[in-house]
Design a protein that fits this description.
3 domains, D-Maltodextrin-Binding Protein, domain 2, 13 strands, MetI-like fold, alpha/beta, 10-stranded mixed sheet
Amino acid sequence: MQTMTKFTKGALLCALLCAMSGLFFADTPGQAKEQTAFIVGFDAEFPPYGYMDESGEYVGFDLSLAEEVCRRNDWTLVKRPIAWDSKDSELKSGSISCLWNGFTMNGREKDYTWSTPYVDNSQVVIIRKDSGIKELSDLKGKILVVQSDSSALAALTGEDATDDNKKLADSLKELQQVGDYNSALMNLESGMVDAVAMDYGVAAYQLEGKEDAFALLDQRISTEKYGIGFKLGNEKLRDQVQTSLLEMLYDGTFERIAKEWKLDSSICLSFDDKTYVDGKAVPDIDTGSLSKATANPEESSENVKVKEKAKKMSVQEITRQLSSGMLATLAIFFLTLLFSMPLGLLLTAIRMSRFKPLQWIAKIYISIMRGTPLMLQLLVVFFAPYYVLDIKTPYSYRFMAVIIGFSLNYAAYFAEIYRSGFQSIPIGQREAASIMGYSRLQTFFHILFPQMVKRVMPPVTNEIITLVKDTSLAFALSYAEMFTMAKQIAAAQTSLTALFVAGVFYYIFNFIVAYVMELIEKRLDYYR
């Protein structure tokens, strides 16, 4: 009967974990596992090409184009926000079908299988109106900010950078790199930097409503072309998408979508492009089956409803949008504790064993986990199955990789905290227990373990509080926890409000954690 009870409890625990995994591992709504799914990888902090609007939906010029391509091919569109620094790994591992997000072709021609260019873009410089900067030469001795791994950075420091741009970069006091354009503009607004270089389309969106404070320089740093990047060699999918784009160009749908997003002056998709950058022929389209009337007549160039900038959201609306991210953050926190604390105890036992090879295995493991960044460990856990074992993982594996990475990392820290607690117990207590006839297991569970728990509560509390904040590192695997969502909302709103709301949540959560841990510590403080 006791065995059956244990089994039942285990089954219920497994069922609970499976239910939670079903809730948090679930793919994006509408995602299909069949080959008709078209998964677009994009940076959700890159308006107007891709961002989160006030209703919590991912929208943008490129996503509107992708939606129309999917409609014409009877595909299911999956909008997948990704960490831009991991875009190549996402594409090569098959997690996404393409990179479609104002993706610059210049300098990357040989790295991807490209569509023909569809947008002509420029790199522009934003300055404060009171800065006194009138042209690019005035940036000498100034601080210029760019997004990391961006076209602006490549235009100034890349191999194909012009001599004039290289001289400009050398003349700067500093060329700073930030993770997103919202951070860049905040630096500019606060006076910490003198100018920001970015894509023209993004600059136009960010400056809307801020023309009194900021201005664009007339001179351009560079011009570039945007294309859709597919995995090298995936010509079949590229041709299918290209054919749909040309059909949209023929019947007017492409121009209509561009007008909606105020980008009609930048489009460059053309029937004159007969070959791709890799030299392959662009497929012909059958215009006999198409009609200009395919485009909705109510959406003619005169009646196109221009997409407005995301409406300003109240604190309540932002909190509501962040609620799903809060649940994800809580899931990471509790599941990490559930797995890492007992695993840390096991590591402690191995680390303190008398068998030297086991000791060294535990030492090496702990050294690696504590000596390398958690973000790197998360990337290894997520991408290792593909790059090491050639296994394609489902989208739900992202959350599993987050929990595995966090648990393995925090287990190493807990192991050393536990070890310090055990070693602080006088050796005489072990000897006394042996004299009284206690077995080693009895000594451990009845004498040593309770005292260890009592002694390590303060450092364990510190680690748990750190874990609350470290949950934001899940963004490295493109998992949308709360802080990632806050950054996306902040980029769309060009406001810090969402980040402040997230900060309040972290503080309240950490306050509750510290309070609970303090109560536990007082409860265990039975010798005063």
